Amino acid sequence: MSQFYHFPSDFFWTTKIKNHQGIKNNFLHQIENDIKTLEKKPDWCCDVISSFCYKKNFLYDNFLVNSIVWEPIDMMLSSFPNNYWQIKVPINSSISNIWYNYYNGTTSSHQEQHHHRPHSFSGIYFLKLNGKNTTTFYNYHSDTTFERRKILDNVKEGDVVIFPSSLMHQVNFFSGEKISISFNVSSTYSIEKKYKDNY
Ligand SMILES: [Fe+2]
Questions:
Q1: Which residue from 7, 26, 74, 131 lies 20 to 30 Å from 106 (Cα-Cα)?
Q2: In the structure, what pLDDT confidence band is assigned to residue 199 with cuts at 50, 70 and 90?
């Protein structure tokens, strides 16, 4: 008898944000103005303008975070098959940080390969996207039989992608114009009673 078991560890999940136009009306202008105030370049090997080094309070707006963080994450969690969360079920989550990235189209912008540990979930919302997206995810847990690299090139403006914070990703050279809002969420977990005996 054979058994094939696939650990449900690496994934990304995308959806369209239903309030996208309202968010764009409210926040695009604010971000475009705020970009002019940035002085510090993030400490990454990248060529992207980012607010990562600063806490931008206007990004913690309830309407924004409900629309691009909590509603999509709830939707994602409820869309997994029943047996997907074998052990860990998030019972409480909070935003650790939220920031914007600006790819201005005048240079070949990119970000080196990285992860967002030690957070739980991370996401990227595409507030403005002109050009084919080049975010690429990597799966180092599989051998050559399986795909190890996936370019997120089919997302459109107004979409959000959510992934485990441990998942490696990078942004390949991108010559279009893009403003994205990224976020990290930290969760606490409950070990379901029926699995406790296994520990
Ligand atoms: Fe990232």
A1: 26
A2: very low
